[in-house]
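We emphasize that the prediction below concerns an isolated chain of 398 residues; any contacts that depend on oligomerization or on bound cofactors are therefore not represented. The input was used exactly as deposited, without trimming of termini.
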Amino acid sequence: MARPRTPIGTFGEIHVERIHDGRARALTRFRDYDGQLRRVQATADTPKAAERKLKEMLAERTEQKVGQGDLTCASSFRHLVDVWLADLDLEDALAPSTRALYERNMRQLVLPAFEHYALREVSVRKVDQFIKTLAKTKSYSMAKQARTVLSLAFGLAVRYDAMRENPVRDTARLRRPPAQAMSLTIEQVEEIRRAVRGWRRGSGVPGPPPDGQLEQIIEVMLGTSARIGEVLAIRKCDVDVTRSPATVRLCGTIVSPAGRPTHRQSHPKTMKSTRTVSVPSFTAEVLRARLVAIASEAPDHLIFFSRNGTPLTTNNIRRRLRAVLEEAGIEGVTPHSFRRTVATVLDRAAGADLAAEMLGHTSSKITKEHYIEADEKVNPVTAEILEALAPHWSDGEG
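Result of the prediction step, given as a token string:
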């Protein structure tokens, strides 16, 4: 039966002996990272000093060999980040927006906390405390995003043999704080419409008035449930107002990758989000007006666009909406609020499955957890059913 081999990076028993000049020599056999056993020795004035020196040599030899290629356990965390980002680009498996988000989260949330550590100094405790502190001082969402990029980067370090284990794996589970999706009431929607229609249109306001696209974009969001990027990516050929009801095909999104121009991506946030939705009359009216405005343009021309004919950026629309609502004293409303409102209205009328289908979700679980506002009202039919428990007293009984 074959004898099990000594694990790579380990050494056998240390022997100490005196040599001819009276000094001490410590020696052992070390299984190197090419699988070969090699004799390693160190000399010093005393046996203890020789043994200590030998162990230091072995530790240094292990550190030099643990990492292969661009990374070792002595590499800095900052160097790991550079190698990890280069590896993401080499794989080219992420959408540009996701790649940009990962880099931003790594550089802004994580790197300041770990950049001065060598990889061998990063422990489960350090990572665990960092994530918990971030969740407490910032938000659950930031902590979750930081945990994701840390796990991906350390996973690469493990694959490069620069770390033996991924320290994120054994950190405590993040606990999502209780939260409820908040949709807008009909009254709030009308208040937002009035604020947007009246913004910078009064007498004495300097500069040209708004071009009217913001209020039109809101109507399309309310009629389609689409994300802001999906609305801005709608083309002339995606709209059919000859049908009743009119339809819109949501099959792209607007992205703004770092260092590259804003452009239309040929699929929504996920490939499964592509869908054709029927829209209400108020949305169809807006789309007809936009089609008239671009009647002479090619079929692939965007419905919404800048004064220069380029795609509108999602950040620009968010900033403009925020400025309008702040001026009107309306707080807590983002483009996603309209998406939640659509989900809640559909759920109340026809159930969560239809809401999920409209929003482009593969199941209603995500829709229920993040988009549909909880309904505190119990179906009033319960009152009728519970009449069966009414007292049946005969005359004269109290």
